[in-house]
Structures are given as C-alpha cells and as structure tokens.
C-alpha cells in the first residue's frame, strides 16, 4: 500500500457496498482532506472536478485511493456532467468553487461557478432524491470583527 506524504495514516480503500458520496471540487485542498475523512468513515467517495490531476489526492489519501476512486472530470456549470457523476451516490458534498482572487479577476465566471454551480447541485440532489447536500460557507460571513453570528447588515458592506 502506498504512503501519503507527511507520515499520515493511509485510509482504508472503500468496500464494494460502501455508501457513495459525490464530492465536487475533490481535487482541491479541502476536497482532498474530505476524501480522506470519508474513506476513514467507511464511505466510497466519488470525485467531480475540473482537474484531472490526482497528485494532491494521492499525497493526502495515498496513491492507491487516488488511482481507484471514481473520478469524473467535468464542470459544475454543466448539469449533464454533474448528473452523470451523481448517479448512484446518496449525498453530495459541494466544494467546487472559485476563491476570491479568481472571482475578482473574472466576476462573471465566478458567479456562474459559485452561484449557478450551487443551484445545479441542489437541482441534481432533488432530481435524484438524495439524502442531503453539504456545502462550504466562509468565515467572511461573520464580518471583519469576528462576530458570533452572521448579520444581514454586514452583507451591505462587502469585504471584497
Ligand atoms: N480554503 C479556505 O480557506 C476556504 C474558506 C472558506 C470557504 N472555502 C470554500 O471551500 C471550497 C473549497 O475550497 P478549497 O480551499 O479547497 O479551494 P481549491 O481551489 O483548492 O479547490 C476548489 C476545487 O474546485 C474545482 N473547481 C473550480 N471550478 C470548477 C468548476 N467550474 N467545475 C468543477 N470543479 C471546479 C477546482 O479545480 C479545485 O479542485 C470553495 O468553495 C471555497 O470557496 C474555502
């Protein structure tokens, strides 16, 4: 069995009857760690990402897992690609997205990926009668002063 970097334990490979969870953006930073956590919890993660590059996943989950996971290369804006990847999964963890620098450089693309992409995930989950969707928010909703709760007032004074 291959060893990931950083002396991490290698997560177990999923069994054939493990429940499948689609992870969008799984080739990214949080995605790769999410795959690792899912493997340890006995799930069978299914990858959906623009990137075909499995190196980060191999580093964090081990190259055996990176090579054997179902890996769908596609764009979150494309409903057909997303639905094909989601078939047979019972939940979606949605992490595919563009971070602030990319959105600043191309706001239209940022809106299509982050907003329409999220709506696509909800629509597919509804169509396939999935058990749930989990998606990432940001500490930015608490504003610059680290408030205890998000506030609608702060929405009117965006940080970026
Ligand atoms: N990293 C943070 O500190 C942080 C904080 C708050 C929220 N988030 C959110 O968490 C999510 C993941 O963040 P991350 O740090 O892992 O980012 P990341 O850039 O490492 O990963 C994002 C992944 O999404 C994929 N992606 C981008 N556009 C896509 C598209 N059109 N279709 C399919 N896949 C696409 C990228 O290829 C990448 O692998 C993002 O939505 C981000 O906004 C991150």
TrEMBL record:
Keywords for the protein's UniProt record, in alphabetical order: Carbohydrate metabolism, Galactose metabolism, Isomerase, NAD
Q: Which residues cross the membrane?
A: none
Top-level division of the source organism's lineage: Bacteria
**Which cofactors go with this protein?**
NAD(+)
Give the metabolic or biological pathway: Carbohydrate metabolism; galactose metabolism
Record InterPro entries? Epimerase_deHydtase, NAD(P)-bd_dom_sf
Q: What is its EC number?
A: 5.1.3.2
Specify the enzyme's EC class, one word.
isomerase
Does NAD count among this protein's keywords?
Answer: yes
PANTHER family, alphabetically? UDP-GLUCOSE 4-EPIMERASE (PTHR43725)
The family this protein is said to belong to: Belongs to the NAD(P)-dependent epimerase/dehydratase family.
Q: What is this protein called?
A: UDP-glucose 4-epimerase
Q: What organism is this sequence from?
A: Vreelandella olivaria
């Amino acid at each position: 069995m291959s060893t990931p970097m950083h002396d991490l334990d290698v997560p177990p490979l999923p069994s054939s009857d493990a429940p499948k969870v689609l992870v969008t953006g799984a080739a990214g930073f949080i995605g790769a760690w999410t795959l690792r956590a899912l493997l340890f919890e006995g799930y069978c993660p299914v990858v959906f990402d623009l990137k075909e590059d499995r190196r980060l996943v191999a580093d964090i989950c081990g190259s055996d897992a990176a090579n054997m996971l179902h890996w769908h290369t596609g764009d979150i804006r494309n409903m057909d690609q997303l639905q094909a990847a989601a078939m047979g999964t019972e939940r979606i963890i949605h992490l595919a997205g563009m971070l602030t620098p990319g959105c600043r450089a191309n706001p239209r693309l940022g809106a299509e990926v982050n907003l329409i992409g999220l709506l696509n995930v909800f629509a597919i989950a509804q169509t396939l009668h999935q058990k749930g969707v989990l998606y990432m928010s940001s500490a930015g909703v608490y504003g610059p002063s680290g408030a205890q709760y998000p506030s609608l007032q702060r929405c009117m004074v965006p940080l970026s």
